[in-house]
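Per-record layout

source: Azospirillum rugosum
name: Xanthine/CO dehydrogenase XdhC/CoxF family maturation factor
length: 104
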Amino acid sequence: MTDDILQQAASWRADGRKVAIATVVSTWGSSPRPVGSQMAVDDSGSMIGSVSGGCIEGAVVDEARKAMADGEPRLMSFGVSNELAWEVGLACGGKVQVYVEAVE
């Protein structure tokens, strides 16, 4: 799957689109994706791959688009949130950190 993600990212770049890659860099507990899982995002918000199985992808796409705009990488951390019902988190009970970086 990683080859498909990187091939799509290369295709987007060849089409003149900006691209960011999100990579799972650490997990704890029952995180839905293992370390090394990746997702590519283009500047329109299109994506391929997964870093959580759907729990946090929207938030990662938003940060990827910001990373493409300002060139700054991000380290995002997600877990279960009991404080705010609308806060982005993992329903499965684990924790995950995702590194997001624009591709130059």
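summary: The chain has a mean pLDDT of 86. The chain has one domain: 2-103.
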